[in-house]
Amino acid sequence: MARDLTKGSIIKELLLMSIPTMIGFSAQMIYDLVDMFWIGHISTAAQASVGIFATIFWVVEALNEIIGTSSISLISQSYGKKDYEKTNLAIEQTITFKFVVAIIGAISIALFLKPLMGSFAKKEVVDLGIKYGYIRLFFLPIMFSSFSVNTALRCIGDSKTPMYIMIFSSILNIILDPFLMFKTIPGTSIQGLNMGISGAAVSTIISQSIAFIIGFYLLFSGKRGIKPSIFKLLKLNFKMDKKLITIGLPNGLEVFARNLSMLVILKFVSLFGTTVVAAYAVGGRIFGFVFMPLMGLSMGASSIIGQSLGANLTTRAAKTAKLTASLASLITFTFMLLVFFKGEVLISFLNSDAQVILYGKEFMIFSSIGLIFVAYSFGLSSVFSASGYNLPFLFMSAGSRWLIQIPLLFIFIKILNLPLIWVWLSFAFGDFFEFLISIYFYTKGKWKKIRT
């Protein structure tokens, strides 16, 4: 059910909101790891192809972020003000707009997917990536809509329902993966559909579609304290739509800049061969696991901060952000210890190739140095998305990746011809600069005065 987050213990409300979200995202991350495990049974080239596609695919995430970030402040602040009519309107328009932009994004990426893939890898990797990628792109509107439903539920204080939905979706994914991918499920005599890498994509879209249907029904049924209208999904509201575009535009540009920078970084990684790309993809999936708790904390904090700002409780919002930053840093430090001492074990679970394990371990150890700074900035940055002041995100991304990491990569690899380890170290330099920018904008305090 919906919750009033403008009162009560901050730590209690933060944990109540964040833990279910952490669990839900962690369940999805476990699926991603299992997915990469099964794909590794096909080949190292298959893992590389999924890693390259994922990097290209998430460029379109900027479209999701523009509206998604706007919706966090609009929904949570409206609910904090007890303006339920505006809350319903924000939810309706968020789902409609995301569906439309997802169609545009899917078509755009599909048109250029093959040449983009070809710029990073050889034909075998490209062919596998195309088989996987076109299926994922076709169902991008469902994926975006599912994000919208879960975000809306969290913004009104219901973090458990998205958790249950995400856990169910992940379990279904894990079950479907080997059945759809292999002729005979490895280790059993159970017959599968032998769809290969395409099966991994199909299992993902089936689980996402079912998750969306469940979440959509619960949100629109009125059983969660609000009741948006299905019929109003077909009607645009210019005033609300303008806010959905403009509030989150800096954040969308930030995500676009960040993900585009990941393509450039991937190009430097690909210079060292397919095995290194596979190690980078596997290591990235493992890193994604630590970001799930951080995202859970950030989303939980954003709901509390958004409702608090809507009720003009600025001090409560600031305390929530600082507490979130501290908890995020603690979680990340624990993960860093695991990476430093057991990194090769984590990599070997997803790929048994000795070279992939070696490169993957090096990637995780050296690039994780800056993670604790990222974690702290993650916590503080929750005030930006909750208030609707999203310009800092753009400076954080442009500064850390385009002004620091990519120029350093060019110097390290193209000019000085340094070894692969300097590609991994470049992440730490960028992460530290991002931390400094987040501190600056948080301390400046403009977020305290912004309202949607």
From TrEMBL:
Membrane association type: Multi-pass membrane protein
Assigned GO CC terms: plasma membrane
Compartments, record wording: Cell membrane
GO molecular function, one term: antiporter activity
Transmembrane segments: 12-31, 95-113, 133-153, 165-185, 197-220, 260-280, 286-311, 323-343, 363-386, 393-415, 421-442
Alphabetical list of Pfam families matching this protein: MatE
UniProt keyword list: Cell membrane, Membrane, Transmembrane, Transmembrane helix, Transport
Protein name: MATE family efflux transporter
